[in-house]
Amino acid sequence: GFGEPVAGERLEQLIGLHLQGLAEAAAGGDNRFGDDVRLAGRADLSRLALIGHSRGGDASFALANDPDVLSGSLGYGPVDGVLQVAAAAASVDPWTSISAPLATILAGCDGDVVDQVGQAYFEGPRLAPDQTAWAASVWLDRANHNAFNTILPGDMAVQRDRPDCEPLLDGKAQRAWLVDYATDFLTTLFADDPVAIGHAKERLGIDVTTAAPDALYGQPARVAFLAPAADRQTVMIPADADELQTNRLGGAVTADNLTSDFCPKGFYSAQTLPGSEPCRRNYVTVPGQPAHAVVSWETPGAALRFALPEGVGDLSAFSTLSLRAAVDPASPLNPAGQPQAISVQITDSAGNSAAVHTRPDEPALGFPPGLMQDSSVTETGFFTGRVPLTTIRFPLSSFAGVDLSDIAEVALLFDQTSSGALFVSDIEWVRP
Length: 432
Description:
By secondary structure, the chain is an alpha+beta fold. Helices cover 17% and strands 25% of the residues.
């Protein structure tokens, strides 16, 4: 609330008092929730998930990482999972790991958290070397900030310059969507039936053996997913510029007939960070402002190759090659309104190769809706839409004729279009 000496302090205190009171009442003690609410024996505060909207989103992240909550010494916790809904990043540093599975929902037409900064709660764990639990983010088209509940009026900001926000998602439909998503999220945390958990993960779009979705629960949506540390091996994040020379497994990175640039996390411009022009960070909004690469090509046949040193090329225990990407809407190399397409090629140590193309209309490679508008602030103008980095999946079983236990190179081939520019990150192999 406003006027706090420490940002977020009051909200965390209120949540803590509520949970402590609930734990006491559930244990048969004083029930401060009212005599007509029977709580004794009805709640197990050692099995706890948090759902936080807006400022409650960053409070839930902080609470999950609180040492006293992690120890259970307060009578509740540790937290088993965190679901953020249109989260703000007002009082908590998101650039860290989180102790529990996390899902963050981004309202595509948020009129409060207009830059969808809640994505940083995905990007932080993704960069944290000690992150072990899975994390997911969902881009929900046409959703606004306040319609996730029935109490608040319409959003403060109206998205008049965004054609993808006309019309907004119906409020009842938006809340029904959240109920469905939350139900499946909780199922993954608390269900005892592996089959039920598997079906829930598929509906959530986080089953890595399935293609990345373009809709969830009947509404247009896209996902980004960070698999548990035990179930992924990453060849490129990138966390720094060195990863465009030497990949995370120790092999060389080779750019054939293309330009590759590194964009560090955070907000900057070409004036404040010389050399960052390809990142377009001050006039193209990439939610969460993640670290990523920019890959651009002017003729077909370009490639970005990742050599795998001897001893690290056994992919046989994994099911899927995964990466994140988005089309740069401000690049003249991308025809306006047209999707992009790429291929992935795998080569084994015997020299056998197989390539798999992205699907037609791959969700992550659609041209972002929005307009380039003139601006008095920057000579480049600015893009009115949003450009989230979302997941593309390639089943490893589709790469026929190669020995998955002895892979020597993985390559991104830019062979499907004559030119293009993509934001690219998180090239890795994963398993369920």
